[in-house]
Amino acid sequence: MALTGIKLLIKNNINMELLTTKEVMHLLKIKSPTTLIKLERENEIKVAKRIGHHKRYKPADIQRYIDKRN
Fold first, then answer.
1. What is the pTM of this model?
2. Is the per-residue pLDDT at 11 higher than 60?
3. What is the pLDDT of residue 69?
4. Comparing C-alpha atoms, which of 68, 30, 66, 24 is closest to residue 48?
5. Residue 34: predicted pLDDT
6. Phi, psi for 32 (deg, rounded to 5)
7. How far is CA 6 from CA 40, 52, 66, in A?
């Protein structure tokens, strides 16, 4: 169901909204922020924007990773 939400954002070109770290972790079903950091270091996932210590991600980038993983 969550993947459908990402696909809808991309399909409707409303991908101006960026995802938070918690949202990405939920969508990827990972429990540790360390795992997300590892994916960033391995260039599997790209950080779209940093706001202080907070990171934001583009829904299209997360969808691309999910499609590649499956």
1. 0.76
2. no
3. 87
4. 24
5. 96
6. -115, 130
7. 19, 25, 11
Whole-number Cα distances in Å, 27 to 15, 45, 52: 16, 13, 23
Q: Which two tokens stand for residue 52?
A: 């202080």
| Amino acid type, 38 | K
CA-based nearest residue to 43, from 64, 20, 13, 27 = 64
The DSSP secondary-structure symbol of 50 reads E
Q: How far does Cα 17 stand from its chain's mean position? A: 11
Give the residue from 28, 16, 6, 21 showing the smallest Cα distance to 51: 21
Helical ranges in 1-70 per DSSP H: 2-11, 21-28, 33-41, 59-69
